[in-house]
Design a protein that fits this description.
The complex is a heterodimer of chains A (565) and B (409). Chain A has helices at 2-35, 50-57, 61-90, 94-103, 111-122, 127-136, 153-175, 180-189, 194-201, 203-223, 226-231, 239-247, 254-293, 301-329, 347-352, 357-388, 394-405, 408-421, 428-454, 458-465, 470-481, 483-499, 502-508, 515-523, 528-556. With 565 residues, chain A is an all-alpha fold. Helix content of chain B is 39%, strand content 13%. Chain B has helices at 9-17, 31-38, 52-69, 81-93, 109-117, 182-191, 204-217, 230-247, 262-271, 284-290, 323-333, 336-343, 361-368, 391-405, and strands at residues 42-48, 72-78, 104-107, 146-147, 150-151, 156-163, 165-169, 276-279, 298-301, 307-315, 385-387.
Chain lengths: 565, 409
């Protein structure tokens, strides 16, 4: 028994690393070979640089790459800035915990749904302009270029409203590891402003903990497809959207171009990350300068107020967007500039509901299976950490973030080739679960790890001293005490699985479809009513998971006052 | 193994000689045996999934196929037909020459040409051997035998017709002010800045608009029936791009962005952002009114000099897993019953590929009794058909369009 409890966690670590690194390695290989001209089925038998020459000759490719880097960096910089100022202003106050309750659910809203809601809000025929239309005497939508503005400003805004809540919650988790009240008192007693004191004393340590999450945001924002399609510039689009076009090009030789483009996308993301490292250097230099000069920035009230306003607007935009989606899903004829539809109808829902049974089952099965596997592996790895007394180093942490930092699109295409080559058609569902696991695992691990490590070990030491075995300590003390973060991690994992588009499309090959692949397929029809129905369905599932994660511990702990939070 | 139909024999000889023996199709002459073999099969029908009414129609097809033949039809909903083509390629790349994941594919134009040229289709040609082929209107709809000037050779079976028509809201726009050709449309756009646009290529409605204009403005329209001649291409398409250069500054959003596709234009007509839109299906406006997406005042018009028309098809990949089931489904899709429901705007409203004189009395009466809706032009008012240019034109024009308007300059 003792041997087993020692061995299981060790194999969990090996399994976890394998599950993260192998698919990415093979996937990248499957993309690299065609990029260098090798894809025998299409007559590419020799290695050559021709695909890259074609790529260089493609009009607008440089603009697309620059757009991807710029929008990715801008979205990350703004999101992190808002998060920093807001947390620095309000960490440790009731305001923060109240907004935490508002922002946490935002994490569950899939990117596509949030982007659609945002577009319905701000478009020239959208809800905001309808609100003011009677006042300004507008009866036709103004001819203004949003969304899809050539600078990508709408897209940056759309990314910011989704990434700020993510960075905010990651920062909050890391906040558990620093001495907030002491630092606050120290800074205040020396007469520093709230924001400045926080940034000088706590931010460097906090940033060290959340930096991989920031890199993941950069990678995501510089390679995103769905948000870019909905809000981004389209003439030319970002590199990610161009890639999908090439992958779908009926002219099959474009497959080589697409692979070369995927390699370029990898380069774009690397450039974005390198630029970010430069920003990090510069920021730390400025920080040191300001600290050594003793600048106190006492009058930061305006900034503090502004940050809470912006965070409120972000929350408001997503929720209002979801409300507009709900209205459209029930709308009959709804012409501009009417604030409400002329009539309401359940037709859109009635026609959609009979069709969602199969995708719903696939979504649930894939989500539950991948999340459960992820939580078992995570607990195994964390248990191993306790056994060896070594916390995961930067290298292991990087491994964990690898699937989030390497752009999805660059390796799932190769993975699909691999899957077909292995003749694994009968094991499609298993393959789908495993591919989802690649993306679910990091989030589950990151969501749980800090809570796991933060638990006071003396409980377990006492139990062990009283003669309980390691496994019994785990089952009767650690797991029950951590039931809330464990369930939250499960909900996070489930939400991530539900939101997966590209991997589901490629591995499911249309035979296994989820709510998300259905939503994006139907979104290509651009029918606002249908988009409303599917975007809401897509949002409801993760919301249910988070609601359960909140309600189950409350029910379990109803007679344990100290376990309530 | 070969079909007995005389006229196609030569073409089939050529087609079969380049295909490996194991890819040969099922026995079409013995239809009863084919029905028996199909029973219990699952047909993965790869079809664009962006329209709820089309999806609902395909569900009906699935239910009928199940109850009549025990064949399960599953619609694989695509964003773009090219992704199904991509799947077949990926399978060929992996050496998966049997048991492929695509059984039936909704296709036409460049996707068909692409699959045909890459030997990705079930051969020999089978469509003309389907029992219901006898109803098909090959006499009056030349686009059934040549898909974008590429001979179909029975490698795809016709499913529906398409014809470009324009829509406007009669509550906002005077019928007398409407244009009657591309030139007048440009003048109309200049007088109504920001109220006309077209989806950016490669959306097929958008590409169709470019072809419509090209057909009207090219110096020698006969060139369009043949592949692009590189030397004269620039000169041939110059009138088209001169037209677009004039149109874009007065188009919606000054031509800096374009509607995504037809449903997007439909929404913009309802919102009042656009005043004239167009579709490839004459009954789209009636269907939109019925669905509460367009106001009841929307009406159709077309150009008296003719608009683009074509046919869309279903094809079977060479490595399809359920070939018998796919053939049976293709045959059902051109049955009078399935075509009648398809043309009914209450379900879909897509013009039939069948010839009325070839149908039974009762079927003919049923087609005549269809209520196409006030916004739909009757078949005799649809105007002449302009044939699709050779597929190479579309590819070249799309590239040229992107180079000029989508390079970020």
């Amino acid at each position: 028994m003792a041997g087993l409890t020692a061995r299981l966690p060790r194999s969990a670590v090996a399994l976890t690393l394998g599950l993260l690194v192998l698919p990415i390695t093979f996937g990248l290989l499957g993309t690299l070979l065609p990029a260098f001209g090798y894809l025998p089925a299409l007559g590419g038998d020799d290695l050559s640089l021709q695909p890259f020459r074609d790529l260089a000759a493609t009009p607008g490719v440089a603009t697309a790459a620059v757009l991807s880097v710029a929008t990715g960096l801008a979205a990350t910089f703004i999101s992190l800035g808002i998060t920093l100022v807001f947390v620095a202003s309000y960490a440790g106050t009731p305001t923060l915990s109240r907004l935490q309750h508002l922002l946490s659910p935002l994490l569950a809203v899939p990117h596509a749904a949030a982007a659609f809601g945002f577009a319905f809000l701000i478009a020239p025929s959208g809800f905001l302009i309808r609100l003011v239309a009677p006042l300004l005497g507008i009866d036709r939508p103004p001819d203004i270029l949003i969304p899809h503005d050539p600078m990508g400003l709408t897209m940056i805004a759309g990314l910011v409203i989704k990434e700020t809540p993510f960075l905010f919650l990651v920062t909050l988790a890391a906040l558990l590891q620093v001495e907030l009240p002491a630092a606050r008192r120290l800074a205040a007693s020396f007469g520093y402003g709230r924001i400045a004191g926080f940034v000088y004393l706590l931010w460097p340590a906090l940033y060290r903990q959340i930096r991989f999450a920031v890199y993941a945001v950069i990678a995501y924002s510089s390679s995103v497809v769905d948000v870019a399609l909905i809000l981004g510039p389209d003439l030319p689009g970002t590199l990610g959207t161009r890639l999908v076009q090439w992958m779908n090009d009926p002219d099959l030789s474009a497959r080589f171009l697409a692979s070369a483009g995927a390699v370029l996308q990898l380069g774009v993301t690397v450039v974005a990350l390198l630029s970010w490292f430069a920003v990090e250097r510069l920021a730390s230099l400025l920080l040191r300068l300001a600290r050594e000069k003793g600048w106190r920035f006492l009058r930061d009230q305006f900034l503090r107020r502004a940050s809470i306003l912006i965070v409120g607007l972000i929350g408001g935009a997503v929720f209002a967007g979801l409300a507009i989606l709900a209205l459209w899903s029930l709308a009959g004829l709804w012409q501009f500039p009417d604030l409400l539809p002329q009539n309401f109808t359940f037709r859109s829902w009635m026609s959609a509901l009979p069709r969602i049974a199969d995708p719903l089952v696939t979504t649930l099965v894939t989500g539950l299976a991948s999340t459960l596997m992820a939580i078992l592996l995570t607990i195994g790895c964390l248990e191993r950490e306790l056994q060896t007394g070594r916390s995961v180093g930067d290298k292991a942490l990087l491994m964990l973030y690898l699937p989030l930092i390497v752009p999805q699109i660059t390796f799932v295409f190769g993975l699909q080739l691999l899957f077909i080559y292995s003749g694994g058609g009968e094991y499609r569902l298993i393959a789908l679960v495993l591919v989802h696991l690649v993306f679910v695992l990091p989030y589950v691990f990151l969501s749980l790890a800090d809570h796991w490590r933060a638990l006071d070990r003396r409980y377990e030491i006492i139990a062990t001293a009283l003669g309980r075995s390691r496994i019994s300590v785990l089952l009767s003390i650690r797991l029950p005490m951590l039931i809330r973060p464990i369930l939250t991690a499960l909900a996070v994992g489930f939400a991530v699985s539900v939101g997966q588009y590209l991997p589901t499309l490629l591995i499911g090959e249309g035979r296994l479809s989820t709510i998300t692949t259905e939503a994006v397929a139907l979104a290509s029809g651009n029918n606002r009513r249908v988009i409303g129905v599917y975007a809401l369905l897509q949002t409801i599932l993760p919301f249910l998971a988070f609601a359960l994660a909140a309600l189950i511990p409350a029910a379990l702990h109803r007679n344990r006052r100290d376990m309530r939070v | 193994m070969r079909l007995m139909t005389g006229i196609f024999a030569a073409a089939l000889m050529a087609a079969t000689s380049i295909v490996p023996a194991k890819a040969a199709g099922p026995e079409l002459a013995d239809w009863a045996a084919l029905e028996k073999a199909a029973s219990g099969q699952t047909v993965y029908f790869n079809a664009w999934g962006g329209s709820e009414n089309i999806n609902a129609y395909l569900e009906w097809v699935g239910a009928e196929m199940q109850s009549r033949y025990g064949v399960t039809v599953v619609q694989v909903k695509l964003e773009d037909t090219a992704s199904a083509v991509a799947k077949v390629i990926a399978e060929k790349a992996a050496g998966k020459n049997e048991g492929g994941s695509v059984d039936l594919i909704w296709i036409n134009g460049e996707n068909f040409v692409s699959m045909k040229q890459q030997d990705l289709l079930l051969t020999p040609g089978w469509a003309t051997a389907l029992p219901n082929w006898r109803y098909v209107d090959i006499e009056n709809q030349p686009t059934i035998l040549t898909d974008f000037t590429e001979p179909t050779e029975g490698l795809e079976s016709p499913w529906g017709g398409a014809k470009m028509v324009f829509f406007y809201d009669s509550a906002r726009t005077e019928a007398s002010s409407l244009p009657d050709n591309a030139k007048q449309l440009l003048d109309w756009a200049k007088n109504n800045p920001g109220r006309f646009s077209y989806p950016a290529p490669p959306d097929f409605i958008g590409s169709s608009f470019l072809k419509q204009v090209l057909s009207e403005v090219i110096a020698d329209p006969a060139k369009l029936a043949k592949p692009v001649v590189e030397e004269s291409f620039e000169q041939d398409v110059e009138p088209l791009f001169a037209y677009l250069d004039q149109l874009h500054p007065v188009a919606w959003r000054s031509g800096k962005t374009f509607p995504q596709n037809y449903p997007d234009m439909k929404q913009k007509l309802a919102d009042g952002e656009l005043d004239i839109i167009f579709a490839f299906n004459p009954s789209e406006a009636s269907a939109g009114i019925k669905a509460g997406e367009l106001p009841e005042t929307v009406r159709s018009f077309t150009f008296s000099g003719g608009t683009l028309g074509n046919t869309h098809f279903v094809a079977i990949p060479y490595n399809a897993n359920a070939k018998e089931g796919a053939l049976l489904t293709a045959n059902f899709l051109i049955s009078p019953e399935a075509q009648l429901r398809k043309q009914d705007p209450a379900y879909w409203g897509d013009p039939t590929v069948l010839a009325m004189p070839k149908l039974s009395e009762a079927d003919r009466a049923a087609f005549a009794a269809l209520d196409l809706g006030a916004a739909t032009l009757s078949p005799d008012k649809l105007g002449p058909v302009i044939a699709e240019p050779h597929a190479s034109w579309m590819e070249r024009i799309e590239v040229e369009w992107r180079r000029r308007y989508a390079s970020g300059n």
